[in-house]
Amino acid sequence: MSAHKYELMFIADPELDERGLKKLTDQYLELVTKEGGSVDKTDFWGRRKLAYEIEGKNEGNYAVVNYTADPATSKELDRVLNLNESIIRTKILRKDAE
């Protein structure tokens, strides 16, 4: 299987501070690097108001990560992110699918 470029955006609990958010992000991105992928760029947008309430929350900490991995690794990353109660929403887009 060949690697693809992806963009992951996730919204974490607004109670997490910046250090907590970075730690959480690094913890999950380790999955990508451990499987031979690479993390190309990480961008923390900080705390923002949500468009609509999710799980009783009006705000969330946004993070956007560009990474390269094979599809199975990306699928596993999405699965483990969705298991974490500190993660409100995730969205993974394949960037090289033109």
UniProtKB/TrEMBL annotation:
PANTHER family: MITOCHONDRIAL 28S RIBOSOMAL PROTEIN S6 (PTHR21011), SMALL RIBOSOMAL SUBUNIT PROTEIN BS6M (PTHR21011:SF1). Signal peptide: none annotated. The keyword Translocase does not apply. InterPro entries: Ribosomal_bS6 (IPR000529), Ribosomal_bS6_sf (IPR035980), Ribosomal_S6_plastid/chlpt (IPR020814), Transl_elong_EF1B/ribsomal_bS6 (IPR014717). GO terms for biological process: translation. GO terms for molecular function: small ribosomal subunit rRNA binding; structural constituent of ribosome. It comes from the Bacteria. Binds together with bS18 to 16S ribosomal RNA. Belongs to the bacterial ribosomal protein bS6 family. GO terms for cellular component: cytoplasm; ribonucleoprotein complex; ribosome. It comes from Bifidobacterium aquikefiri. This is Small ribosomal subunit protein bS6. CDD domains: bS6.
